[in-house]
Every structure is written in structure tokens, then in C-alpha cells.
């Protein structure tokens, strides 16, 4: 009878993984992201080259090209942090991962460092989409922040219900 009385709230926050300007996913100059083909999310125009975990979970992907990090949150959401656009072509140059697949992470833990100037010069764009790749099948709803400036590990960018 009292089983659900003390249950934690079913909503939680996803935090900014990077310091920078928060922009709607629709403004990403790549239709795969802007048309939400990969899922719901938000993007950040980074002001620094440090990426931290936006949620508690497990690292499920660090591609050979090192341009992205995939995290499965403790409640089953799949987050993709995709640093820049067309950065897979850089073949890992300019990226230094701080985690490997299987690592447990908490909000604010270091995931990656990248050379912002190098990416800016050699990739299509430095804008960094943060996408919930299983948003359509999760059964959850997502509220995107109206904040304009993100502080890594501190600014709430997505509320999950």
C-alpha cells in the first residue's frame, strides 16, 4: 500500500556537458540533427574543449574517430554527445577521450578533451549536438531548457518526465 509513497520523483535532469551557448537542435546546420532523425535534444556552441558527463550512467560508445561519446543513463536513456559536425573525417585528430566503454560516470566527470581551435579550423562546424537517441521509444517526454548559456555539469539542459 505504501510502496510508491516514498518513490523518487520520476523526472530528472540532463546537464550541459560543455561550457558554451545553448541553441535549439533545429539550428544545427545538419539535417540529421536539425530534423531530429537521431532523436530529441539540444546543441551547444562550445567555448572550451572540455566535455563532462551530463548524467549518471555507463559509457557505451567512444568511436575510433573519438568525435563522440555515448552514455546509457541509469534509467535507460541513450545520450549521444557529438562534438562538431563532420568530425568523423578528422580520424581522431584533436580529440583526447578520458573514458572507455564500460566506465561508470557521474554528472561532471571528465569524458573528453578536444582542441577547439583545431576542430573549428578542420571540421564543418564546432556546434555539438546532445541527442537522446532512443527518445522516440523511451515513453518519456522531454523539456528543453530556455537557458542560453551552459556551464558544464551545472546547467540543466533537458528535463525528462
TrEMBL record:
Coiled-coil residues: none
Q: Which GO terms describe its cellular component?
A: cytoplasm
SUPFAM superfamilies (alphabetical)? Duplicated hybrid motif (SSF51261)
Is Transport given among the entry's keywords? yes
Drop me one GO molecular function for this one.
Answer: kinase activity
| InterPro entries, sorted | Dup_hybrid_motif, PTS_EIIA_1_perm, PTS_EIIA_component
As for subcellular location, the record says: Cytoplasm
**Domain PTS EIIA type-1 residue range list:** 30-134
Keyword Transcription regulation attributed: no
Keywords attached to this entry? Kinase, Phosphotransferase system, Sugar transport, Transferase, Transport
User: Do you know which Pfam families this protein is assigned to?
Assistant: PTS_EIIA_1
Domain of life, source organism:
Bacteria
Q: Which NCBIfam families does this entry report, sorted A to Z? A: PTBA (TIGR00830)
Q: What is this protein called?
A: PTS glucose transporter subunit IIA
Amino acid at each position: 500500500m505504501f510502496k510508491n509513497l516514498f518513490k523518487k520523483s520520476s523526472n530528472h535532469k540532463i546537464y550541459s556537458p560543455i561550457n558554451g551557448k545553448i541553441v535549439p537542435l533545429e539550428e544545427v546546420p545538419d539535417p540529421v540533427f536539425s530534423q531530429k532523425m537521431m532523436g530529441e535534444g539540444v546543441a551547444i556552441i562550445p567555448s572550451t574543449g572540455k566535455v563532462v558527463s551530463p548524467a549518471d550512467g555507463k559509457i557505451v560508445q567512444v568511436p575510433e574517430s573519438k568525435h563522440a561519446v555515448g552514455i546509457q543513463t541509469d534509467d535507460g536513456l541513450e545520450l549521444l554527445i557529438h562534438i562538431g559536425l563532420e568530425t568523423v573525417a578528422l580520424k581522431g585528430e584533436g580529440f583526447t577521450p578520458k573514458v572507455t566503454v564500460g566506465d561508470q560516470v557521474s554528472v561532471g566527470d571528465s569524458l573528453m578533451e578536444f582542441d577547439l581551435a583545431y576542430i573549428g579550423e578542420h571540421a564543418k562546424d564546432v556546434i555539438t549536438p546532445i541527442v537522446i537517441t532512443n527518445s522516440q521509444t523511451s515513453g518519456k517526454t522531454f523539456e528543453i531548457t530556455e537557458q542560453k548559456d551552459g556551464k558544464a555539469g551545472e546547467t540543466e539542459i533537458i528535463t525528462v518526465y
